[in-house]
Design a protein that fits this description.
Blueprint (H helix, E strand, L loop, with lengths): L7 H5 L7 E5 L13 H17 L4 E2 L22 H17 L4 E6 L5 H14 L7 E6 L24 H10 L45 H24 L8
Parallel strand pairs: 1-2, 1-3, 3-4
Helix pairs in contact: 2-5, 2-6, 3-4, 5-6
Amino acid sequence: MLFAEQSWPTLAGLSRDIPVIVPIAAIEQHGHHMPVATDTILLTEVVSRVHAQLGDSILVTPVQWFGNSDHHLDFGGTLSAPPRVYLDMLVGITENLLSVGFKRIVFLNGHGGNDVPAKQATFEVRQKYRNRSDLLLLMTTYWSLESEPWKRCESLVQREMGHACEWETSMMLAINPKLVKEHKDLKPVEPGNPFRPGSRAWITKDRTEPGHIGHPHQATVEKGHVLLETFSHDVARWIERVIAWDGSSWDG
């Protein structure tokens, strides 16, 4: 069920146990060959496929295109909320939904920069409502659910999501190839090892001059179809666990 298409009485009449899926994306530079709305377009497609599988068992809000993308600002083509502003926005959305009784709220993420503030938002809200055991506040990123698309498509080179990379470029080719400029001659930009397993603070220009990270020259329409099918299937199966939650237990 799509939140934006319902009247308020219809929404008021829904079970408060229905999972509310809040997709969060971004508008930011995606190299020389990809549109700045890439994250939003890809997440919209994934959410559409998940909704087609789960239907009225979930409530899906509009995709939030305003993301935490300050690390891309040097390139232009980016509209970003600073991290703390973004965190507060997500807390506000959560509070909106809690105020009318919804109890199972899921941030479904489609942009790496949203990961930390989205997790922190759910954590902060949980502390505020610490005396309630009936709340399920979750966050996940659509490509992070232990998906292994290379097992279905052996020609995939990358083993992790990059930026305007083989994976994202392939998915955009499958959705709307007219939005992808020439990519076959682009040179790969390796993700490197920035003091792993530690975590290094960075801006995108620390890592790439052209704006992409990964192997966009390896992208194909066929790979895009496999990636979209894999990610949407895995997200739908994960959300089924949210639907099946008993309303109080720790495990899901």
